[in-house]
Amino acid sequence: MASHAQLAIDLEGIQDWGNALNNVRSGIDQPVEFSSCDDQLGTDPASMAVQNALADFDRAWKDGRAVVDSYMSALSRMCDDTVARIRQLDHSLVPPTPHHRPDI
Q1: How far is CA 77 from CA 26, 29, 49, in A?
Q2: Residue 1: band (very low, low, confident or very high) from pLDDT cuts 50, 70, 90
């Protein structure tokens, strides 16, 4: 015969994961400054190639960071929403306590 074990969901784990996503988001939100390298690089073709590559990377990083940030933000909100909905459902499934009145 099947057991009627309770379903267990690690709500704190889901919240922790959502918080970790937000921490990563704030970490990748730090700007990368490649313009400070311009003074240290020369004007020869190799140095100019490095400068151009850094500028290309900087543009691509900004675009990519925006995409990654939007995905992480959505996942973090999903974690919060999931935990809130599960707690609400769990609360709604609790049977009401009967009110006992003493017999008169």
Answers
A1: 15, 18, 41
A2: very low
The answer to whether 25 and 73 have CB atoms below 8 angstroms apart is yes
Q: Which of 5, 25, 7 is nearest to 79 (CA)?
A: 25
Give the C-alpha separation, 19 to 78, whole Å: 11
Handedness of CA 35, 37, 39, 45 (dihedral sign): negative
The pTM assigned to this predicted structure is 0.62
Q: Transcribe 14-28 into DSSP letters.
A: HHHHHHHHHHHHHHH
Instruction: Give the Å distances, CA to CA, from 89 to 1, 67, 75, 84, 92.
Output: 27, 33, 21, 9, 5
C-alpha to C-alpha distance for 47 and 19, rounded to whole angstroms: 41
Nearby residues of 104 by Cβ (< 8 Å), 6 or more positions away: none
Look at residue 28 and tell me whether its pLDDT is greater than 50.
Answer: yes
